[in-house]
TrEMBL record:
Lineage: superkingdom: Bacteria
InterPro entries documented for this protein: Glyc_kinase_flavodox-like_fold (IPR018193), Glycerate_kinase (IPR004381), Glycerate_kinase_RE-like (IPR018197), Glycerate_kinase_sf (IPR036129)
Keywords: Kinase, Transferase
Record organism: Rothia endophytica
Sample GO molecular function, one term: kinase activity
Record-stated family: Belongs to the glycerate kinase type-1 family.
Name listed for the protein in its UniProt record: Glycerate kinase
NCBIfam families associated with the record: glycerate kinase
Keyword flag Iron: no
Length: 384
């Protein structure tokens, strides 16, 4: 029986690689002859760089501007991305520079948060010779429409007095002059793909500020003002690029990462692709799947978000199309059986509810995940 373990992370406890290796260890405890193929996966959000590293990419680190330059400890941060020398491909997570994970609850301030560091990551990758960029846009703390990213790459956004705009979406109210003449020519020499499953446009009731602003610390008043500011930015950018209004602002995914999707589509000329699809190619999942009889996938919590295009749901969809048995593992399962079966899972193994409380599972995840591996081996791989 050929087994493929293609799992996302247990957020906060186990990376995708650690989770896969722990499951494999449990399986081998039951039958040493079993040797599952490991292939960590992601969906374009946090964990995408880890998945690329597990697939053989090299880690690159650099100092970049953090999400809130005015706060000590968040002005400069060490960020990382993955690079493949053979294909000159860089895999970048926006959240490495401008991630909400870097902030405590009381620090949430999307009015002033900037994507400048994300632009510095892109610039660094270009400087070491990347010819293909894969940009994961999940988990940002920003709502600046990618203005910071544009500035980091050489664009100038100035107010009526000729002063460069300060960081954050709030400052876009003062935008008067937009100048792209300083953008590096190297942007024309690379292919850029945005790994994204968000479909929101830049502005409006379903836009970046309205939908995601509140969870990033924006007040109701700020949400409305940020939306107006993003509209102002969009008009300026589309005029500068000589395209009709809404060409990029209304595109699917333009509202991703506080509007950074808009900047990637318009200024970087990126192509938007489903996050799971891009990550499956990066990690080799697409190539490894045909040889498997049983596919084990999963993440920390199975819930309704899982069903909305996240990694495990993508694995189940692809695997079912090829007639595979699909098993899901998780720390906590919030789905009814009808829902997870409809998503393509043949069985679900959850740490919580199978002899462990939530607190116990968080304190010692490897122990309980290994037990899940043992249970899967008994139920599906050995007939015992």
């Amino acid at each position: 029986m050929d087994v493929l373990i293609a799992v996302d992370k247990f957020k906060g406890t186990l990376s995708g690689k650690d989770l896969a290796e722990t499951l494999a260890a449990g399986i081998r405890r039951i039958d040493r002859s079993l040797n599952p193929v490991i292939c960590p996966i992601a969906d374009g959000g946090d964990g995408t760089v880890d998945a690329a590293l597990a697939a053989g990419y090299t880690e690159v680190t650099c100092q970049v501007t953090g999400p809130l330059p005015s706060i000590e400890g968040l002005a400069q941060v060490e960020a990382r991305y993955a690079f493949d020398e053979a294909t000159l491909t860089a895999v970048i997570e926006i959240a490495e520079a401008a991630g909400i994970w870097r902030l405590r609850q009381h620090q949430l301030d999307t009015w002033n948060a900037t994507s400048y560091g994300a632009g510095e990551l892109v610039r660094h990758a270009l400087e070491i010779g990347a010819k293909t960029l894969v940009i994961g846009v999940g988990g940002s703390a920003t709502t600046d429409g990618g203005a910071g990213l544009m500035q980091a790459l050489g664009a100038s956004l100035r107010d009526a007095d000729g002063q460069e705009l300060t960081p954050g979406g709030g400052a876009l109210a003062s935008l008067d002059v937009l100048d792209f003449s300083g953008l590096g020519a190297r942007l024309d020499e690379v292919q850029i793909f945005v790994a994204c499953d968000v479909t929101n446009p830049l502005t409006g009731s379903n836009g970046a500020a309205s939908v995601y602003g509140p969870q990033k610390g924006a007040s109701e008043e700020q949400v409305n003002l940020l939306d107006q500011n993003l509209q102002k930015l969009a008009i300026s950018v589309e005029q500068e690029l000589n395209v009709s209004r809404g060409t990029y602002a209304d595109a699917r995914g333009a509202g991703a990462a506080g509007g950074l999707g808009f900047a990637c589509l318009s200024v970087l000329g990126a192509t938007m692709r489903p996050g799971t699809e891009v990550c499956f190619e990066l990690t080799g999942f697409t190539q490894k799947l045909p040889a498997a009889d049983i596919v084990i996938t999963g993440e920390g919590k199975l819930d309704t978000q899982t069903l909305q295009g996240k990694g495990p749901a993508g694995v189940a969809r692809e695997a079912k199309e090829q007639g595979k048995t699909v098993l899901a593992v998780c720390g906590l399962n919030e789905l009814e059986e009808d829902a997870w079966r409809q998503a393509g899972f043949d069985d679900v193994y959850s740490v919580v509810g199978a002899g462990a409380s939530l607190e116990e599972s968080l304190a010692d995840p490897r122990r309980f995940v290994e037990q899940l591996g043992e249970a899967i081996a008994r139920d599906y791989l050995t007939g015992r």
